[in-house]
Specification:
The chain is mainly beta. It has six helices and 22 strands.
């Protein structure tokens, strides 16, 4: 009780003058978007990297409303609550909550609970094809997230070393959706628990302006726990000791399946993220080159899967508004440490790791794959299981070789554009290769217009299309969108 009384006394002693009453804000937004296309699905770049908001149907639309309330309590402390609701069609549930969260920020440290659209990746969110571990492609998972979202200077490094990162623990709430999606006899895991952590270290001269800088990062994501609809697999280990095993990527205990006892508990993916950049203080441009090495198991961690992953170049042009940013990327996942995987591998008798057939994003137990509501959590270039019209689970094509380019700029002070173009090649998986290689292209041309006399209003028009047979029969279409955003503040 004495601590409660002390807390109340402290509240009463807080100054109430105008300087001490910090700014409070309410941000609000309303948006409606519709798209009509001729193919089996809406064009790829219409739906991808939009946090799962756009349905895959060729003709679709949604209405979205969000409100966020935040208050700056002190110079260092701020809290925020947010609610974001969508009405979309066609989909299995037309109205749902996209974001619902509470967040507290102390200096650069942020903690949140709930479903919030997060993005910790080094790669450009609007122009990149997508982070291989955690992109902006799927709906946000309900989670507890602790992060330093922006680079901060590491003490005692004289400003030369900066760091950022996050750690999160979440729970998939897509069981009812999977019940309706999966065909009879197709197994999946209900109530999957999820984990993600990352750490990025950047060496950059923040004082004297040395133009070169470099970043090294590590990302780790895992699926664990839950209950498989296959009675032979059943409930997966979920005790606190299993949490520790999962967190440190250790093998499972005696109650885990054989593969998890030999390897690690759960389904894991790891990436090594590498970036180098150059920018002079007086320069009109900045260039970055990067590589994200994707790993499914120990063979990938040791680079037995070659150069599988994402390679990219980004160019920023600060004084050339017509073309302000260019991103070019190459994504290859064909090596996969070889074609075959042996659970019981005799290292004394045979050379090599014995850990091929990595089959990224798929897992023998977690047949849902690296997805949420069947939309890929990692790179959307590996076609999500949501495209499986026959109700099968898992990614049908994990061996790809794609080229991607993204451009953006401003045509006028009120009109901006974004262009995405991707050349795609897919071979299926090592165990289930396609009879013939699937090829195709996907493009998006998007123009956004803001009228100078209509504050907060944005009007968007887009043209998009797919060719080939990567996503159904291909086709093209057009989309329109209208949004209104605003803010109210007071002390």
């Amino acid at each position: 009780m004495k601590w409660i009384r002390l807390f109340l006394v402290c509240l009463l002693l807080m100054p109430a003058d105008g300087e001490a009453q910090r700014l409070a804000e309410i941000h609000y937004g309303v948006e409606t978007t519709g798209f009509a296309a001729t193919g089996d699905y809406t064009p790829f770049w219409t739906a991808s990297n939009r946090y799962g908001t756009v349905p895959l149907a060729a003709v679709n639309g949604y209405l979205r409303a969000d409100v966020t309330h935040s208050r700056q309590v002190t110079d260092d402390f701020r809290w925020t609550v947010g609610l974001d609701v969508l009405c979309a069609a066609p989909r299995y549930r037309n109205m749902y909550v996209q974001q619902f969260y509470a967040e507290a920020q102390y200096k650069q440290l942020t903690a949140s609970i709930g479903s919030k659209e997060q993005y910790i990746s080094l790669w450009d969110r609007r122009l990149s094809s997508g982070d291989m571990i955690q992109s902006a492609n799927a709906r946000p998972v309900p989670e507890i997230n602790i992060s330093v979202p922006q680079f901060i200077v590491v003490p005692f490094t004289e400003g030369l070393l900066q760091a950022k990162g996050d750690v999160s623990f979440g729970l998939s709430l897509d069981t009812k959706y999977l019940d309706g999606f999966a065909r009879e006899g197709e197994a999946y895991v209900k109530n999957v628990r999820r984990h993600h952590k990352s750490l990025f270290l950047r060496v950059k001269d923040t004082q004297d302006g040395f133009p070169f800088y470099g970043t090294l990062g590590l990302q780790h994501t895992a699926q664990w726990g839950g209950t498989s609809t296959n009675p032979k697999i059943g409930r997966q280990p979920g005790a606190f000791t299993d949490f520790i095993r999962m967190f440190f990527a250790r093998h499972g205990g005696a109650d885990a399946n054989l593969s998890d006892q030999i390897n690690v508990l759960g389904a894991h993916h790891v990436s090594y993220d590498m970036q180098i950049g150059y920018r002079r203080e007086d320069a009109d441009w900045e260039v970055q080159a990067y590589y994200q090495h994707l790993s499914y198991d120990a063979s990938g961690l040791s680079f037995y899967n070659g150069a599988d992953g994402l390679w990219g170049i980004r160019l920023d042009l600060f004084r050339f508004p017509w073309l302000s940013k260019v991103v070019a990327e190459y994504v290859n996942t064909r090596n996969q440490s070889g074609s075959f995987h042996h659970i019981l591998f005799n290292h004394d008798k045979h050379p090599g790791m014995g850990g091929g057939g990595d089959d990224y994003y798929n897992n023998g137990i977690y047949t849902n794959g690296h997805t949420y509501f069947n939309r890929g959590v990692g790179s959307p270039l590996l076609p999500s299981p949501e495209y499986n019209a026959d109700g099968t689970m898992g990614y049908p094509g994990t061996r790809i070789l794609d080229w991607h380019i993204g451009l953006e700029g401003a045509l006028t002070p009120q009109a901006s554009y974004r262009i995405l173009y991707t050349l795609m090649n897919g071979w299926g998986t090592s165990l289930r290769p396609f009879l013939r290689k699937r090829t195709g292209t996907s493009f998006l041309i998007e123009i956004a217009y803001t009228h100078p006399d209509l504050a907060g209003w944005t009007f968007t028009g887009s043209l998009a299309g797919d060719t080939g047979n990567v996503f159904g029969s291909g086709g093209g279409g057009v989309g329109i969108g209208i949004s209104k955003r605003g803010v109210a503040s007071w002390r």
